Amino acid sequence: MGLFPLLLVLFAASGCAALIYEIVWFQLLELVIGSSAISLGTLLATYMGGMFLGSLGYSRMRLQGHRPLRVYAVIEAAIALCGMAVLFGMPWLDRIYAAYGGHGLAGILMRALLSALCLLPPTLLMGASLPALARQWETTPQGVSRLGFLYGANTAGAVGGCVLAGFYLLRTHDLYVASYAAAGLNLAVAAVSLVTARWAPAPKTPEQVEAASGGTRLVYAVVALSGLCALGAEVIWTRLLSLTLGATVYAFSIILAVFLAGLGIGSGAGAWLARTRFSARAALGVCQVLLAAAVTIAAFLLAKRLPYLPIQSSSNAWLTFRDDLIRCVYSVLPAACLWGASFPLALAAASRPGEDPGRLAGTVYAANTGGAIIGAIGFSMVLIPLVGTQNSERILVGLCAAAGLLAASQSRRAIPVLATVVLAGLLIWRLPGVPWEVFAYGRELTISYKDGRPLYVGEGRNASIAISESPEGTRFFHISGKIEASGLPQDMRLQRMLGHIPAMLHARPRSVLVVGCGAGVTAGTFVSHPEVERILICELEPLVPRASGRFFAKENHNVVRDRRTEIVFDDARHYVLTTPERFDIITSDPIHPWVKGAATLYSKEYFEMVKSHLNPGGVVSQWVPLYQSDLATVQSEIATFLSVFPNATIWNNDINGEGYDVMLVGQNGPPHVDVEALQQRLDRPDYVRVRESLNDVGLGSAVSLLSTYAGYGPDLQGWLARAQINHDRDLRLQYLAGFAMVQNNATFIMSELLRYRRFPNPIFAGSPQQIHALRYALPAWQ
Fold first, then answer.
1. Measuring CA to CA, which residue among 69, 23, 22, 20 is closest to residue 50?
2. Mean local confidence (pLDDT), 560-580
3. Confidence class of residue 147 from pLDDT cuts 50, 70 and 90?
4. For residues 620 and 609, what is the distance between their CA atoms, to the nearest angstrom?
5. How far apart are CA 159 and CA 262, in angstroms?
6. By CB count within 10 A, which of 139, 293, 345, 361 is most buried?
7. How far apart, in whole angstroms, are the C-alpha atoms of residue 762 and residue 748?
8. Given 3.40.50.150, 3.40.50.300, 3.20.20.80, 3.20.20.150, which CATH number is that of 488-777?
9. Residues 6+ apart with CB under 8 A from 462
10. Can 1-136+160-201 and 488-777 be said to share one CATH topology?
11. Higher pLDDT, residue 208 or 427
């Protein structure tokens, strides 16, 4: 094998390792600093900022007498060491952040500092790898073309790393195994590079060339705008495709892999074009103009075509992934190829004979990455929440056209410039908006949407929100394409149970933490309890309480405006990690566990944090969905909860005798349920609002409320013997749940669970007549 093909393989392996690290590090840091838009923006800025500084800084360094391959080998070995340092150092930083992290500006600064401590060292090295390897060649058309092929190989390797991490390493193993695999790749690349450096020809010393001209600086501006648009588009497309495909870890892996594949394919084509007689600068400008059209076509497909295609009806998740891949290729790949071609064309357009190739590659890469940082943060945190998706896409089209105009600005031909302006104007004018039902129903649009009407649609930093109303007058609360709450009887019953059951099992609840606001009905149940003095709602998206307070005020007892209520806008895990407060009740109704990031609120370590924030006698309740799930997923959720609360009880919410969802209730000690005492509390004059709230959902007496009992932790040990515990180190649940999203086994799961229900059970006390009435009221699923 010749030197160049070997280096392509090595750089592809390096790209594979880099993407594995990226996925692992983001998952690790999300556990500590949260998954809010601010947290993720901080993570992204630090990660890409390190790449920017590494490429720019190293390209300015002149290491006389050092062979490029030896330097590259040292960089790869150092990346492996940094990867291990992040993996094993995170628990220590976790403790520091838990002690000193907070909310507001201080909390944001602490998150930024933690991200920098973790990610800057390895990402600086990653950014330096391309300019380090670039010095193996001269700045000739052939040499510059090879830099483009190297970039394409690195991106192709990144596709492999994305798929390998998302579909195998993290699904089957854990963060540690994935990190070891990435470090192994780095060390293998370093070893081969060291051996190869012995016989590789020494590169010529680059000449001193004059400072960059105005035309060259324009190329840097164009490639920076190209990077800005590429990451801005990725932000928009990821949000829209996650609605259409379902926001699982697998969908995100597919979206990222297709985008990276497009960059790799385009980079190869651009590298080939750069060594021909075509003008690289003209080709770069044409790419940007074509991108304006490609972005508009993608906007049309994502808004008007893909959401209305029928979804896969098979229960085979792999068939669903196949369809998801086709949809992503259909919408994302063309534009991604054009952005990929822009990088090698920019290298060729900016190159000057005799120039240091490391400086050339580093400067172009830094400009591209710097623009990408602005695009990712600007679109996700500013533009989409401020002006919405449609106007953000219009801005994106305008920026693509502006990049094309910049590339052509030194040409004296007026016709191409005028044509670009006219084309951009037409595209911006005709660019379609996203229909409200896409924000509301997402991937189930074709099977769930009938004749509802929108009452409210909003796009926030963290999620899109919609409120709809059916012709019968039932209201639905949608978050990111999924119905999270509604006025349907089964949903109202669950939301009331999540509040009333822990409140009734606690002797005298005064303080409550509600994880996730939703329609506010669960939080609103505590308004009716006379002893409750403080209700703290932790919600990620600020639009949610506003919408629930406006459209579900009757159902949630106007909890948002209650004097006892305080709302904290933060990632719930981050809040629990950093708050010193303790509560009498912590009730959690997070988003479905198949949604990417939700599994952090179902892990053993999270439940341990929750337990440590309970007052003596405190109670915690946790929602577990049975729909869009399978037996292994539900068993994992219950077993993980029982690993922290072994004496937990399970309570059932069904639909006309068919399974729907359950709730878990945990306490610090063995539970004791006195049926007579509960009825006496309900009969008190100050509990009249509690009775009314329970009567609304058919649970107005102690016996009817307790008839939802479905099981006791110690009785389920045999059923859960092989269940997988969801740990922070693997977040196994999100991979199990992502596969089970296409399943519909709620009734079967419920019947399996109730086979292990025992009654009478010593946790219940009361007169023989009450126990008999309760036995009679329990549904006979067996």
1. 22
2. 92
3. confident
4. 12
5. 10
6. 345
7. 27
8. 3.40.50.150
9. 36, 37, 540, 541
10. no
11. 427
pLDDT bracket for residue 64 (50, 70, 90): low
User: Any long-range contacts for 180-183 (C-beta under 8 Å, 24+ apart)?
Assistant: 181/17, 181/20, 182/16, 182/17, 182/18, 182/20, 182/21, 182/24, 182/80, 182/83, 183/17, 183/80, 183/83, 183/84
pLDDT at 446: 84
Lookup result for tokens 């399974």:
659
CA dihedral over 5, 8, 12, 13, signed as positive or negative: positive
Residue 516 contacts by C-beta under 8 Å, 6 or more apart in sequence?
538, 539, 540, 572, 588, 589, 590, 591
Q: What confidence tens digit (pLDDT) does each residue in 680-716 have?
A: 999 999 999 999 999 999 999 999 999 999 999 999 9
Q: Which position has the token pair 């649009």?
A: 445
Question: Average of pLDDT values for 119-134?
Answer: 91
Beta strands in 291-403 (DSSP E): none
Dihedrals phi, psi of 60, to nearest 5 degrees: -90, -10
Query: Which residue is listed with tokens 């009331």?
Result: 496
Pairwise CA distance, residues 653 & 746, whole Å: 11
The region that residue 712 occupies, defined by phi over 0 for left and psi between -120 and 50 for alpha, beta otherwise, is: beta
Architecture of domain 212-426: Up-down Bundle (1.20)
Q: For residue 538, is pLDDT > 90?
A: yes
Helical (H) or strand (E) element with 615: strand 614-625
Of 17-26, 213-222, 595-604, the poorest mean pLDDT is in: 213-222
Is residue 130 within 8 Å of residue 150, measured between CB atoms? yes
Name the phi and psi angles at 450, rounded to 5: -125, -95
Parallel, antiparallel or unpaired: strands 583-588 and 649-655: unpaired
Q: Which of 12, 19, 34, 4 is nearest to 572 (CA)?
A: 34
pLDDT range class, residue 780, cuts 50, 70, 90: low
Q: Can you give the residue ranges of every domain in the chain?
A: 1-136+160-201, 212-426, 436-479, 488-777
Please give the DSSP secondary-structure letter assigned to residue 381.
I
> Is a pLDDT exceeding 60 seen at residue 375?
yes
Average pLDDT, the chain: 89
Residue type, 627: Y
- Please report how the helices 141-164 and 249-274 are oriented relative to each other, as an axis angle in degrees rounded to 10: 170
Nearest Cα neighbor of 492 from 525, 466, 450, 470 is 525
- Give yes or no for a contact between 79 and 16, defined as CB atoms under 8 angstroms apart: no
Per-residue confidence band for 63, with pLDDT thresholds at 50, 70 and 90: low
Task: Give the helix ranges, DSSP H, for 458-540.
Answer: 489-505, 521-525
The pLDDT of residue 140: 64
Overall size of the chain counted in residues = 782
Q: Is the peptide bond before 760 cis (omega within 30 degrees of 0)?
A: yes
Q: What are the C-alpha distances in Å from 572 to residues 511, 578, 614?
A: 17, 10, 15
Q: Single out the residue of 180, 163, 161 nearest to residue 16, CA to CA.
A: 161
Verdict on whether the full-model pTM lies above 0.85? yes
Phi, psi of 460 (to 5 degrees): -110, -175
Three-class SS of 389-417: HHHHHHHHHHHHHHHHHHHCCCCCCHHHH
Q: Which of 126-140, 209-223, 640-654 has the highest mean pLDDT?
A: 640-654
The pLDDT value given to residue 759 = 86
Of the candidates 347, 359, 411, 343, the residue with the CA atom closest to the CA atom of residue 210: 359
Contacts of 80 (CB under 8 A, 6+ apart): 182, 183, 184, 186, 187, 190
- In one-letter notation, the amino acid at residue 647 is N
What is the CATH topology of the domain spanning 1-136+160-201? Growth Hormone; Chain: A; (1.20.1250)
Mean pLDDT of 104-108: 67
